[in-house]
Write a structure and sequence with these properties.
Jelly Rolls, six-stranded antiparallel β-sheet, 22 helices, elongated, intracellularly cGMP-activated cation channel activity, cGMP binding, cNMP-bd_CS, ion channel, calcium
Length: 737
């Protein structure tokens, strides 16, 4: 408010028309509107503690610019009043609004131009600490330092020996040397003191600790020696590049760059071959420089051994160095003692250096092809074994095909050999990324299907999965065999075969499908394969056997209960006719249900199910009671016999009661049902009873009384045709005693 009053007072004193009441009256509403609309927000600075100095400075700058814009609007308004004192506020207001829009557009344009630069500068700010293993910026910086180091290593000997540095191109060499020195200095002061290091298992990120650690290291001493300004001797001895020889002490950064670059490359052996080739070329480069120096010392063209001065100096000397180090021969004989000594030293160093580089090259190539050599050795041993025991050619071809496909698909024969070298944490991280998505699709291990299932148990299962490759046409599992494994299709397809002849394709399972999971929790012999599963093409399957799962579940009892419950539900859903079967308890669900009663027995019984069996048992009890009562009345003690079924299910029913009205008649009784019931006796005997079908089903069955000399024999025997049985009914007459 004070600022507004002060500006108003200044406007009145500077405005010559302020004495005019009409003009002042016309200007007051407009000034009041501008003051209330523009000055009030600016005249009330925010009252808040200073949290960030940079942000506080930006806010102050914004307030200052807003005040300047307000003053600019006021001056525009005053100038408009002076030019047209009779103008009304309605005519002056659009001018003020238009000027406000123009200034706002200019401010936005200025801010849009400055904001990207500010953000860019923020991104360029170096962090307080740098992780040398994961930071790609540091790797990029090391590549720049390596370029500067190679420049010094290659061109300093060249400039010292060969006359390629002349007074006409001296300034170009100076500029390049200055750039390399700047890179060295920047690395020494800003980059290396920020590198993190390990101490006692902890990563140190404190700035003071990082600087102190770098100053106490050998690398700091080498970096200081490499940046020492011996170039000042140019002023005394002239421009001689030999004073820059200390720049080649920056070799630690060169080897560090090689190490980090190899760690991130997919095929590091390619870079190793290139690097070894570079070592060989640099050795030849140094030898060429030494040969030119020796020729210059003896005199160019003075003897046949020295350089004759014709052609390109560097190429001729480099050619001589190649022929000398590789000992090709055909070189001129040295003439003087100096030449002989130089040639001997050159030969010895050449043999040593060249043999070392060749050996290193062999190691690099051998390491690159180590897996392939191991694959070839295993395949050769297998083929030799098959030839020794005269294995058929068909089997040998399938074995060769398996080796070739396994190597082509995963570049190794067994993935577990590679993972065994890693710690358990790394193994788990790799297997979770590769196989967790597949194992989570199994109904038996789904989190939604088994809430509360321990995730660590799933991780232990992932570590135990084994990869198996099947060839086209290989049987993964056969019908009728005991299921002991669960299969997960990692790559390829398998076909489920069925039908009458077992060749009909029921379904084709693709990558990510799972089968055989119920067999993991089934009891011994409780779950058999119901169909043949054949590999359709090459298939890579992950397997988990029952023994491994049981070893894991020992440590997870709660998860074991949940899995058993889920397995019971899955078996109930897959088993046929589960609606009429009462639920089993305990581990009884793992055993198959009892086979259904044959149709012939049901026809003989006259009814099916437990009702017919109960009726037969009731009739048997009544018959036995009547026989015992009749014998007691006759005071004759007789022991009823039992018929025991041993091999074929033969049923014999003897009736010793006979009534006089049935004499002379032979009746063939038609039976339509039999039943078997085990009796709990010490001899574990099994007896089955058949009864005559009474015409009056609703009337209580009464067996005839008396004695008879006829016996009714009903027997069941297997037929010659598979799956059928023959029912035989015979009536025999007892022998007279």
């Amino acid at each position: 408010d004070k600022v507004s009053e002060k500006n108003t007072h200044e406007d009145r004193t500077t405005n010559p028309d302020s004495q005019n009441p009409a003009a002042s009256t016309a200007a007051k509403p407009e000034q009041k509107e501008m003051e209330t609309g523009k000055e009030d927000p600016v005249s009330k600075p925010p009252v808040a503690p200073v949290i960030n100095e940079y942000a506080d400075a930006q806010l102050h700058s914004l307030v200052r610019r807003l005040r300047q814009r307000t003053d600019f609007y006021k001056r525009k308004l005053v100038q408009g009043d002076m030019s047209s004192p009779e103008s009304s506020p309605q005519t002056a207001k659009p001018t003020a609004v238009s000027s406000t829009q123009e200034s706002s557009a200019k401010l936005k344009e200025e801010h849009s131009q400055k904001a990207p630069l500010t953000e860019y500068l923020k991104r360029l700010r170096l962090p307080k600490s740098i992780d040398s293993y994961t930071d790609r910026f540091y790797l990029l910086w090391l590549s720049l330092v390596t370029i500067a180091f190679n420049w010094n290593c290659w061109f300093i000997p060249l400039r010292v020996v060969f006359p390629y540095q002349t007074p006409h191109n001296t300034h170009y060499w100076l500029i390049t040397d200055l750039i390399c020195d700047t890179i060295y200095l920047f690395d020494l002061l800003l980059i290396q003191p920020r590198l993190q290091f390990m101490r006692g298992g902890d990563i140190i990120v404190d700035s003071n600790e990082l600087k102190r650690h770098y100053r106490n290291s050998t690398k700091f001493q080498l970096d200081m020696a490499s940046i020492m300004p011996f170039d000042v001797f140019y002023l005394v001895f002239g421009f001689n590049p030999i004073f820059r020889t200390n720049r080649m002490l920056k070799y630690s950064s060169f080897f560090e760059f090689n190490h980090h670059l190899e760690s991130i490359m997919n095929k590091a052996y390619i870079y190793r071959v290139i690097r070894t080739t570079g070592y060989l070329l640099f050795t030849l480069h140094i030898n060429a420089c030494m040969y030119y120096w020796a020729s210059n010392y003896e005199g160019i063209g003075s003897t046949r051994w020295v350089y004759d001065g014709e052609g390109n100096k560097y190429l001729r000397c480099y050619y001589w160095a190649v022929r000398t180090l590789i000992t090709i021969g055909g070189l001129p004989e040295p003439q003087t003692s100096f030449e002989i000594v130089f040639q001997l030293l050159n030969f010895f160093s050449g043999v040593f250096v060249f043999s070392s580089l060749i050996g290193q090259m062999q190691d690099v190539i051998g390491a690159a092809t180590a897996n392939q050599n191991n694959f070839r050795i295993c395949m050769d041993h297998t083929i030799a074994y098959m030839n020794t025991y005269s294995i058929p050619k068909i089997v040998q071809n399938r074995v060769r095909t398996w080796y070739e496909y396994t190597w082509a698909s995963q570049r190794m024969l067994d993935e577990s050999d590679l993972l065994e070298t890693l710690p358990t944490t790394m193994q788990l991280a790799l297997t979770v990324d590769v196989n967790f998505g597949v194992i989570s699709k199994v109904d038996l291990f789904k989190a939604s299907a088994s809430p509360g299932c321990d995730t660590q148990m799933i991780y232990d299962m992932l570590l135990r999965l084994k990869s198996i490759v099947y060839l086209p046409g290989d049987f993964v599992c056969k019908k009728g065999e005991i299921g002991k494994e669960m299969y997960i299709i990692k790559q390829g397809e398998v076909q489920v075969l069925g039908g009458a002849d077992g060749t009909q394709v029921l379904v084709t399972l693709k990558a990510g499908a799972v089968f055989g999971e119920i067999s993991l929790l089934a009891a011994r012999g409780g779950n058999r394969r119901t169909a043949n599963v054949v590999a359709h093409g090459f298939a890579n399957l992950l397997t988990l056997d029952k023994k491994t799962l049981q070893e894991i579940l020992v440590h997870y009892p709660d998860s074991e209960k949940l899995l058993m419950k889920k397995a019971r539900v899955l078996l109930k859903n897959k088993a046929p006719g589960t609606g009429a079967t009462p639920p089993n308890k305990g581990l009884a669900f793992l055993f198959p249900p009892k086979q259904e009663t044959p149709k012939m027995f049901k026809a003989l019984l006259g009814s099916s199910g437990k009702a017919g069996l109960a009726r037969l048992l009731t009739l048997k009890r009544e018959q036995t009671a009547q026989v015992i009562g009749q014998r007691e009345r006759r005071a004759v003690t007789e022991t009823p016999g039992r018929n025991t079924l041993r091999q074929a299910p033969t049923l014999i029913l003897k009736d010793e009661n006979q009534e006089e009205e049935n004499k002379g008649k032979e009746s063939e009784d038609k039976g339509r049902a039999t039943a078997e019931k085990p009796l709990e006796t010490s001899k574990c005997e099994t007896s089955s009873i058949t009864a005559e079908e009474a015409p009056q089903a609703t009337r209580k069955a009464v067996l005839p009384r008396g004695t008879t000399r006829h016996s009714l024999i009903i027997s069941m025997a297997p037929s010659a045709e598979a799956g059928e049985e023959v029912l035989t009914i015979e009536v025999k007459e007892k022998a007279k005693q």
